[in-house]
Design brief:
244 residues; 16% strand; globular; 6 helices; homodimer; alpha/beta
């Protein structure tokens, strides 16, 4: 009765990934710019249960709004590629939230606790397999840039500990260098932050944003580039786990 | 930077309500059938934080699917009416999930734990004020009908206890008597269940579905009727809390 969604069984094996960060992880791509990804092996968490993946995966904002709506995200092509390569079912745990700074992701903050709670729920019916992070626009300012590495490592280490996920990959995407509202030297410094983090944090990789394009808002990656970004996250994940 | 959503401050006073149950609480109304409700005093929980209310409030299913998509729900007009009457800010905690049976809502189940977790997060920045329930289609069968009252009372009592919300209102909506896939006597028995529950459960009210219309799917209330249903939930809430 009222069977209006497909749920997978607890026993079926899903490898799950946590989506965390700000709007460019949540995804603001236009639906009309790309074909939908329809892969029966890709799922996303809704109310703690797995549903067939559709976009927007991460509904942090209005979908019908013209500006800054929830839309296409990089996670869809990441999941699609990984499921095809590995023949596994992939589950996405959407916890990204637009406009948020690293301070809002620190242990004890709502976003940190929400992400940990949702991942724990997901772990009842999946094998938790890694972290997908894209954030930094909100911290690309003098005074914030200098403390970002330390804050990020504190945050992600605490999250790994909370989830018993000390050895699981953390994949970080670079910011676009073309964001209009930020000073370019600051964007470059933030991207250097990410690479410096990956040098000291075990099982961490940084994904290049080279050649990826923004929407006319000059702030968010466009849908076509998000598909490509997801494939690069997938490549980075494979490299770090030596799956390819 | 990347400020793509309005968040209210922790100190601002929001009265929050938990949306639980199956598809007719989640909401499957067509967007084109009603005007959007734009009330700056109405909010909904996203990633543990308050965002301006928009629909779909409860994104348990695909929004672009033609059949059984997340859509208009009764909670929007409930929140709108209550904020206008009380002059308060109202927050909705969307935890309903289509097609679910009462067994899936029992303590220890994913949906129960998810609802408790999300409400606890909401309570960091709001005053939790009550439960909005609509469910029963999945249990309107012989064998299930007879045990529904006991199961519901066990479930809601446990949830109240977990949240320290023993005295907070529980508002239950009747099923439509026109659902095609169910035997009418069974629907009537389920509605009798609700009224019997309200007789023994403190601070519980049942909302009539009389005159409300279904969509052509003969399963889900249409958007216009959901607006009316929400106003009836509001009336019931006012009566039980003697606000009017």
């Amino acid at each position: 009765m009222a069977k209006d969604g497909m749920n997978v069984n607890k026993d079926e094996n899903i490898r799950s990934f946590l989506m965390i960060g700000q709007s460019n992880m949540a995804g603001r791509g236009e639906f009309r710019d790309v074909d939908p990804i329809e892969n029966p092996d890709c799922f996303m968490l809704r109310m703690g249960r797995w549903q067939q993946m559709y976009e927007p995966i991460n509904p942090d904002r209005d979908i019908f709004k013209i500006k800054y709506h929830s839309g296409i995200s990089l996670a869809a092509s990441f999941a699609d590629e990984l499921s095809k390569l590995a023949g596994d079912r992939i589950g996405l745990i959407p916890c990204a939230d637009g406009g948020t700074s690293i301070d809002q992701w620190m242990p004890g903050e709502v976003l940190f606790d929400h992400a940990v709670m949702m991942t724990r729920l997901a772990m009842r019916s999946s094998t938790f397999s890694g972290f997908l992070w894209h954030q930094g626009e909100a911290d690309s300012y003098e005074g914030r840039l200098e403390v970002y590495q330390e804050k990020f490592i504190t945050m992600i280490s605490a999250m790994r500990r909370e989830l018993g996920a000390e050895d699981l990959p953390v994949i970080i995407g670079e910011l676009s260098e073309d964001i209009e509202r930020l000073e370019k030297p600051n964007i470059i410094k933030m991207n250097e932050n990410f690479h410096a983090i990956a040098e000291v944090l075990p099982h961490c990789a940084v994904v290049s944003s080279k050649g990826l394009l923004l929407k006319p808002d000059r702030l968010h990656f466009n849908a076509v580039s998000l598909r490509e970004f997801g494939r690069r996250y997938f490549e980075a994940y494979c490299k770090i786990t030596e799956q390819k």
